[in-house]
């Protein structure tokens, strides 16, 4: 049974597979027929496509040739039109070129010039002998000249010198160019600057010269602004109006100040900025913080500031004005002139203004030298103040000017330094000259033997020199004699930079105030130095010889030496001089002591007759021998005569210092009165004359009273 079922299943499966096979063969036959038909269709399409290509390709090639011919024709027409335009451009733009550019419409004029330039290039390369080349070249040059004239006209029209008050405000604003107030000084509007910039770029690209026009016109603005400021400085109101802020925002904040005071404020700000930068640099590099030392300017009173040399103050304002104007011009130039031309234009623009300032410096220094030759030492001090301020301007000069201009302005600094050096040298020569001048029969000493004018002037001058020790030290350091003496000091004691300047000034003061000279031979060369005890002392010694009375000579020297010492102590200059002369104060004190002793010795002649009582006759019972009476008469007479003569002379002598005067009076009493008292007590009641009042004229209390009236001409 199972075998039968398996046979039936196999038979059924075979029939099914047979049916599928027949169906597969039938479909394969259909696919074969379809493939044959598709192949036939493709063959026919290929033949037709080949026929079409053979038909269309010649048409395409012919069309391409026609297109090329059309393009060539259009290019030829365009070239012909361009060539014709070169021939016609002269007539087209002739009127526009001759009329010149119009402000605000510069683009149209520049387009016309560009067309002329293109025509020039065409004729130059294709027909350089043509008349048309000459025409367009001439018209192009005319246009360029007109453009230059328009450029110059714009600069002149929109440029004007700053009024003095505006320039003074510009100085007051200082370097704060970001300030809203700074914009009030803009003369050229933005549209004008843009038009000038467009012209500058076109002229630059077309290799046309224009920088001299800009430099001339703007340089004239700077120069004229400075000249107007100079004229304003000549007005009587200059001293109180200069450098006063005039903006509404500041008018109520600052009181009206003198020019010197305002300058002092400006330069103190600069000095503080320099100090702050130096401090920050030191702290960043070393980590060391330093405390600001007090400057001598911190101790100047308002009166000191008002006493400045007004002409030098005016010049410093000019120098500040020049720097501000050129900063201003550099800012304007950046908006107009191409970067590549900045240095050239700025150099031309600034030259005449800088030359004006340099020439003014030369004129001022010549005037100051004439003042110095007349012994007007205030001008000499003014030059040091000006020099210090010019040095403070150096960072601004470094930022504002190029190398050639800095070299030009260096003449100002050098001229001031040379003048300062000559002032120091001439003052020293004056003191030395006074010490060697002693004209017989001609008195130039005070009758009352008070402090000599040379002494007071010398002390006054050196006291004010200390205020400028930094610049004076720099001047003296250039002299080999001073630098050599400084090296000697440095071998004994190390000094920082500021102290070295003080030491150099101390050496100078030592030369001025002290007098003995030291010669040292080094390698067969004579090295000359001057140390301690002054040319001034030598002058005082020489001048005292003009007095006939020995006591007056000593009192004259004592007055002057005491005045010198007290002045040095009062002004703290004694500490400065000690840098060069450590024994200075001791030397003066010793000299004063010796002069007092010498003065007391002038009473010796008067006291010689009454001093030694052992040599005089001894009274017995109030009487002396007849032969001894004449001796006592002579002793009393000589004392009275010498004492009266000395009192007469010394009442006319002045000792200005109260302590010194009272001390000398006390010394006189202590020196004279005890000797006279003993003589008086022993012989006043002795009967040596029928008229004793004729000889015994003064009681001890009367001597004391007369001695107390010495040095008082009204007594």
TrEMBL record:
<dbReference type="InterPro" id="IPR016159">
    <property type="entry name" value="Cullin_repeat-like_dom_sf"/>
</dbReference>
<dbReference type="GO" id="GO:0005546">
    <property type="term" value="F:phosphatidylinositol-4,5-bisphosphate binding"/>
</dbReference>
<keyword id="KW-0813">Transport</keyword>
<dbReference type="Pfam" id="PF03081">
    <property type="entry name" value="Exo70_C"/>
</dbReference>
<comment type="function">
    <text>Component of the exocyst complex involved in the docking of exocytic vesicles with fusion sites on the plasma membrane.</text>
</comment>
<keyword id="KW-0268">Exocytosis</keyword>
<feature type="domain" description="Exocyst complex subunit Exo70 C-terminal">
    <location>
        <begin position="530"/>
        <end position="708"/>
    </location>
</feature>
<dbReference type="GO" id="GO:0006887">
    <property type="term" value="P:exocytosis"/>
</dbReference>
<comment type="similarity">
    <text>Belongs to the EXO70 family.</text>
</comment>
<dbReference type="GO" id="GO:0015031">
    <property type="term" value="P:protein transport"/>
</dbReference>
<dbReference type="GO" id="GO:0000145">
    <property type="term" value="C:exocyst"/>
</dbReference>
<dbReference type="InterPro" id="IPR004140">
    <property type="entry name" value="Exo70"/>
</dbReference>
<feature type="region of interest" description="Disordered">
    <location>
        <begin position="237"/>
        <end position="260"/>
    </location>
</feature>
<keyword id="KW-0653">Protein transport</keyword>
<dbReference type="InterPro" id="IPR046364">
    <property type="entry name" value="Exo70_C"/>
</dbReference>
<feature type="domain" description="Exocyst complex subunit Exo70 C-terminal">
    <location>
        <begin position="317"/>
        <end position="513"/>
    </location>
</feature>
<dbReference type="Pfam" id="PF20669">
    <property type="entry name" value="Exo70_N"/>
</dbReference>
<protein>
    <recommendedName>
        <fullName>Exocyst complex component 7</fullName>
    </recommendedName>
</protein>
């Amino acid at each position: 049974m199972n075998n039968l079922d398996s046979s039936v299943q196999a038979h059924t499966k075979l029939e099914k597979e047979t049916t599928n096979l027949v169906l597969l063969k039938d479909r394969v036959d259909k696919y074969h027929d379809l493939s044959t038909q598709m192949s036939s269709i493709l063959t026919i399409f290929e033949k037709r496509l080949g026929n079409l290509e053979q038909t269309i390709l010649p048409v395409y090639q012919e069309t391409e040739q026609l297109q090329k011919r059309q393009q060539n024709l259009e290019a030829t027409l365009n070239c012909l039109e361009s060539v014709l335009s070169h021939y016609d451009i002269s007539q087209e733009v002739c009127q526009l070129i001759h009329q010149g550019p119009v402000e605000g419409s510069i683009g149209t004029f520049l387009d016309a010039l560009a067309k002329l330039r293109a025509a020039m290039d065409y004729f130059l390369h294709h027909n350089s002998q043509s008349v048309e080349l000459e025409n367009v070249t001439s018209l192009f040059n005319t246009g360029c000249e007109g453009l230059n004239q328009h450029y110059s006209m714009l600069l002149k029209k929109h440029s004007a010198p700053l009024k003095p008050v505006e320039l003074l405000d510009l100085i007051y604003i200082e370097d704060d160019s970001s300030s809203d107030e700074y914009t009030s000084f803009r003369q050229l509007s933005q549209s004008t600057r843009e038009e000038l910039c467009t012209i500058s770029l076109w002229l630059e690209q077309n290799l046309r010269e224009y920088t001299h026009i800009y430099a001339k016109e703007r340089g004239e603005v700077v120069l004229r602004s400075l000249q107007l400021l100079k004229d304003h400085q000549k007005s009587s109101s200059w001293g109180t109006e200069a450098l006063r802020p005039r903006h509404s925002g500041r008018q109520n904040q600052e009181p009206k100040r003198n020019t010197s005071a305002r300058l002092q404020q400006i330069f103190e700000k600069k000095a503080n900025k320099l100090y702050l930068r130096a401090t920050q640099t030191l702290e960043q590099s070393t980590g060391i913080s330093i405390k600001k030392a007090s400057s001598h300017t911190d101790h100047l009173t308002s009166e000191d500031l008002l006493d400045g040399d007004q002409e030098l103050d005016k010049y410093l304002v000019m120098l500040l004005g020049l720097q501000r104007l050129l900063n201003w011009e550099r800012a304007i130039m950046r908006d107009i002139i191409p970067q590549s031309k900045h240095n050239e234009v700025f150099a031309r623009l600034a030259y005449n203004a800088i030359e004006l300032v340099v020439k003014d410096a030369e004129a001022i220094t010549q005037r100051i030298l004439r003042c110095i030759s007349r012994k007007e030492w205030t001008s000499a001090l003014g030059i040091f103040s000006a020099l210090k301020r010019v040095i403070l301007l150096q960072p601004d000069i470094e930022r504002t000017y190029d190398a050639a201009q800095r070299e030009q302005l260096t003449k100002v600094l050098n001229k001031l330094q040379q003048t300062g050096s000559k002032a120091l040298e001439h003052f020293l020569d004056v003191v030395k000259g006074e010490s060697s001048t002693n004209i017989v029969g001609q008195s130039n000493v005070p009758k009352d033997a008070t402090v000599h004018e040379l002494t007071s002037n010398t002390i006054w001058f050196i006291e004010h020199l200390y205020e400028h020790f930094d610049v004076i030290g720099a001047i003296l350091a250039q002299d080999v004699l001073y630098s050599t003496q400084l090296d000697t000091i440095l071998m004994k004691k190390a000094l920082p930079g500021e102290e070295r300047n003080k030491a150099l000034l101390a050496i100078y003061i030592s030369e001025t105030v002290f007098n003995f000279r030291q010669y040292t031979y080094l390698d067969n060369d004579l090295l000359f130095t001057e140390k301690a005890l002054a040319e001034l002392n030598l002058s005082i010694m020489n001048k005292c010889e003009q007095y006939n009375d020995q006591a007056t000579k000593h009192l004259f020297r004592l007055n002057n030496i005491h005045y010198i010492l007290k002045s040095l102590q009062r002004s703290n200059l004694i500490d400065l001089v000690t840098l060069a002369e450590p024994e200075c104060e001791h030397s003066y004190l010793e000299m004063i002591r010796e002069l007092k002793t010498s003065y007391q010795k002038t009473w010796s002649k008067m006291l010689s007759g009454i001093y030694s009582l052992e040599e005089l006759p001894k009274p017995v019972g109030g009487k002396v021998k007849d032969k001894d009476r004449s001796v006592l008469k002579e002793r009393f007479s000589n004392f009275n005569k010498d004492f009266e003569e000395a009192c007469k002379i010394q009442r006319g002598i002045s000792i200005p210092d109260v302590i010194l005067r009272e001390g000398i009076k006390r010394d006189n009493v202590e020196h004279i009165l005890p000797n006279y008292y003993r003589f008086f007590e022993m012989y006043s009641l002795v009967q040596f004359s029928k008229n004793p009042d004729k000889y015994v004229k003064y009681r001890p209390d009367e001597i004391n009273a007369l001695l107390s009236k010495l040095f008082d001409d009204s007594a």
